[in-house]
Specification:
about 300 residues, Phosphorylase Kinase, domain 1, 2 domains, six-stranded antiparallel beta sheet, three-stranded antiparallel beta sheet, about 15% strand, globular
Length: about 300
């Protein structure tokens, strides 16, 4: 990240209350940084500090909030991240020209495992792993929604589902659209996960989160990428594709072929979760279940204890 050091003069990182390890901005700027991707809110980097620790840094674009409003929003985001299925916000940096968010680093994303790393990596996504990921994301969203009727994630997609080496899911980007109010018309959400009623970022809601989670669940079940999830104009309209397949083909043809061996042992579970995903992606928001009901259904279907 050394290329932008001139914009970081005489400034320091601000840490959230849940951060024990401390480092300074100089440590971050001296780190070996690897570009991980460019998303809705900016570019993401893997940064390896000189002490060997690795952090995940998001460099925001087009964020016009003044420092006081930005800091207030950041404190709200830190509280919203206080759940083991959400990626915790550890620190931030603010200047007129640069805004950075620092998170824990996770070695994998669900998108990369499903769509980018070939059969060898995808084979790790057994039925047990897929349901573990789905349940983890659902619990994180349930927690977010419990914080108030106006609280939602707003940008659920498989590239924002980050995973540990043991496949514990941590949902990232929760609530970041709040840092871009009121100019959220500049934010382009991913059409493949976007609920029909959502036109702009300020239209997102808990019900649109449920729709996006339903698409994510279909992605886990089918192994197919939603529209624009892995590149512009690539992928398919998953909810429509699944409904057409239901009418025209055997149900086995819907599921990811790499997990068909699991079907003999988990056939009832796969069908029940497919039906749940379809309910989540109803076009009418009022017909979609709540995340409380979704989480409970996954828990009961797959016999999770907590």
């Amino acid at each position: 990240m050394a290329q932008s050091q001139t914009t970081f003069v005489n400034k320091k990182l601000e840490f959230s209350d849940n951060t024990k390890e401390k480092y300074d901005l100089v440590d971050l700027l001296r780190s070996e940084a690897e570009l991980m991707g460019k998303g809705t809110f900016g570019s993401s980097y893997k940064a390896e500090l000189e002490n060997g620790n690795i952090v995940f840094v998001k460099r925001l674009k087009d964020c016009c909030l003044v420092q006081e409003d930005f800091s207030k929003k950041i404190q709200e985001l830190a509280k919203l991240s206080d759940h083991h299925s959400l990626l915790p916000l550890r620190a931030y940096y603010y200047s007129k020209d640069e805004k950075l968010l620092v998170f824990d680093y996770m070695p994998m994303s669900l998108a990369s495992l499903l769509h980018k790393n070939g059969v060898a990596k995808k084979s790790q996504l057994t039925w047990e792993v897929r349901t573990k990921i789905a349940y983890g994301v659902a619990r994180g969203l349930e927690f977010l929604h419990s914080q108030g009727p106006g609280i939602c994630h707003g940008n659920i997609r498989s590239s924002n589902v980050l995973l540990t080496n043991s496949f514990d899911a941590h949902l990232s980007d929760q609530g970041l659209f709040g840092l871009f109010m009121p100019n959220t018309m500049l934010i382009v959400l991913n059409v493949g996960y976007q609920a029909p009623e959502v036109g702009y970022a300020y239209d997102v809601s808990q019900k649109s989160d449920v729709y996006s989670f339903g698409v994510l669940l279909l992605e886990l079940l089918t192994g197919k990428a939603p529209l624009d999830a892995v590149g512009k104009h690539k992928g398919i309209d998953l909810p429509s594709w699944v409904r057409i397949m239901f009418q025209e083909r055997p149900i086995m043809d819907v599921f990811d072929k790499s997990m068909l061996e699991n079907y003999k042992n988990f056939g009832d579970q796969t069908v029940q979760l497919l039906q749940l995903a379809i309910c989540c992606t109803f076009k009418n928001p009022n017909k979609r279940p709540s995340m409380v009901a979704v989480t409970d259904q996954i828990k009961r279907t797959c016999s999770f204890k907590s």
